[in-house]
Design a protein that fits this description.
Layout: H1 5-8, E1 24-31, E2 40-43, E3 46-49, H2 51-61, H3 63-66, E4 70-77, E5 81-88, H4 98-116, E6 130-134, H5 137-149, H6 154-158
Antiparallel strand pairs: 1-5, 1-6, 2-3, 4-5
Helix pairs in contact: 2-4
């Protein structure tokens, strides 16, 4: 069944009219399907990646190799989600939107994880993702600190 807005009532959480392929910094959160703990665990305030987490980490780090106008800032992989800051620099003829970057990351990591686990069609990620347009250096700093301290705050959030 294809999407029909009057039946499915899905609203976009994106800023209406905003061009997400333009230069800027974006804070993103991507959650696992059904918030499953797939990527490792938190021990003593530090994230310990399992094999699946190592795959996701490596694929995230390779984003700029495939997209020359994309840079990565702070990033943390948690047991059931990730937070990262993506910086889109000058636009090229083939600029990619934030949605395209995330979709490529999610599909590449899902295929690789399913291949290693010898699964086919298993969902790794939730359908959507959360984003925030970073509008100042102070906001960039604050979000970077939030990302870096996320593992230490895990117990508080998880309880």
């Amino acid at each position: 069944m294809s999407y029909h807005p009057e039946i499915h009532h899905r609203r976009s959480i994106r800023l209406q009219g905003y061009d997400y392929s333009q230069s800027g910094a974006y804070f993103v959160t991507i959650c696992t399907f059904q918030r499953q703990h797939l990527f490792g665990e938190i021990n003593n305030g530090e994230m310990q990646l399992n094999v699946t987490g190592q795959i996701v980490f490596a694929i995230w780090q390779k984003i700029p190799q495939h997209l020359p106008n994309v840079e990565l800032d702070e990033f943390i992989l948690m047991p059931d989600h990730l937070h990262g800051i993506i910086v889109i620099s000058e636009q090229y003829e083939n600029s990619h939107s934030l949605a395209t970057i995330i979709q490529n990351f999610k599909s590449t990591s899902t295929r690789k994880i399913n291949k290693i686990n010898q699964n086919s069609g298993v969902s790794i990620w939730q359908r959507n993702y959360y984003e925030r347009i970073i509008r100042s250096d102070q906001e960039l700093h604050n979000l970077g600190q939030y990302i870096l301290t996320n593992p230490q705050n895990w117990k508080v959030v998880a309880e």
